[in-house]
Amino acid sequence: MTDENRVIGNNGKLPWRLPSDLARFKENTQQTGVMIMGHNTYASILERNNKPLQGRKHIVLTRNKFLSSQYASVTFARSVEKALMEVTLSGGRAFVIGGGEIYRIFLQLPEVKRLYITTVYAPELSGDAYFPDIDMRYWKLIFGSTICQWDTKDEYETSHEMYLHLAQ
Ligand SMILES: NC(=O)c1ccc[n+]([C@@H]2O[C@H](COP(=O)([O-])OP(=O)(O)OC[C@H]3O[C@@H](n4cnc5c(N)ncnc54)[C@H](OP(=O)(O)O)[C@@H]3O)[C@@H](O)[C@H]2O)c1
Q1: What is the pLDDT of residue 1?
Q2: What's CA 15's distance to the chain center, in Å?
Q3: Mind listing the pLDDT tens digit for each residue in 137-156?
Q4: Phi-psi region at 6: left, alpha or beta (left = phi > 0; alpha = psi -120 to 50)
Q5: Contact criterion met (CB below 8 Å) for 111 and 81
Q6: Residues near ligand 1 with C-beta < 6 Å?
Q7: Ligand 1 centroid, distance to 42 Cα (angstroms)
Q8: Whose alpha carbon is nearest atom 36 of ligand 1?
Q9: What would the mean pLDDT of 71-75 be, rounded to a whole number?
Q10: What are the DHFR domain coordinates in residue numbering (predicted)?
Q11: Are 138 and 15 in contact (CB under 8 A)?
Q12: Is the pLDDT of residue 66 over 70?
């Protein structure tokens, strides 16, 4: 989820309330069952839900060697290579769910083949986490929705796009 200025987060939280997109996120990630995320994003999930997201494995990147998880569904990976190894051990497919630092790293890897983007049409929002500025010439648009308020409780209109990497 990103706004038109690539803002994705502020103060460790999402800067909008979009139930329709959270439902879409849940459906997509439950299908794959495995998610890669940065430590800050994991912290924001715990803050919001008090526990990890149900039914999905969380591979959390951190350089902190002293962390250990109290949850069977959460594995800490100390490097990108170890995170990718965990994905292989977990069936070979995963969603990279952010945040900014993690998107920046993973969007440069050949393993990343699809992009699911929600664009949020919000007036200028303050943010401290951003989606990277990627070269869209290497991505082919496969699906693009209309711009719409998909749920009456959504704070803003959104559109959804799916891209495939052209090298795949
Ligand atoms: N709009 C969206 O779709 C979306 C999605 C996800 C998150 N968000 C938002 O984005 C913000 C969080 O993003 P962020 O950029 O601050 O943090 P982040 O990407 O979630 O996590 C960064 C952390 O990951 C670890 N890390 C990074 N590179 C690593 C590497 N190469 N090896 C091992 N560990 C590594 C480090 O953890 P340690 O410091 O523990 O070493 C680093 O501090 C929040 O506001 C969140 O709500 C938005």
Answers
A1: 78
A2: 14
A3: 999 999 999 999 999 999 99
A4: left
A5: no
A6: 1, 8-9, 12-14, 37-41, 44, 61-64, 78-80, 97-102, 105, 129
A7: 8
A8: 62
A9: 97
A10: 1-165
A11: no
A12: yes
Q: Give the CA dihedral 99, 101, 104, 110, nearest 10 degrees.
A: -80
d(C-alpha 152, C-alpha 124), whole Å = 21
Mean pLDDT for all residues in the chain:
95
CATH of domain 2-165: 3.40.430.10
Q: Which residue has the tokens 């440069």?
A: 108
The domain segmentation of the chain, as residue ranges, is 2-165
Mean of the pLDDT values across residues 35-58?
97
DSSP of 59-112, one letter per residue?
A: EEE---TT---SSTTEEEESSHHHHHHHHHHTTS--EE---HHHHHHHTTSTT-
Place of tokens 């969603």: 95
**For residues 41 and 11, what is the distance between their CA atoms, to the nearest angstrom?**
11
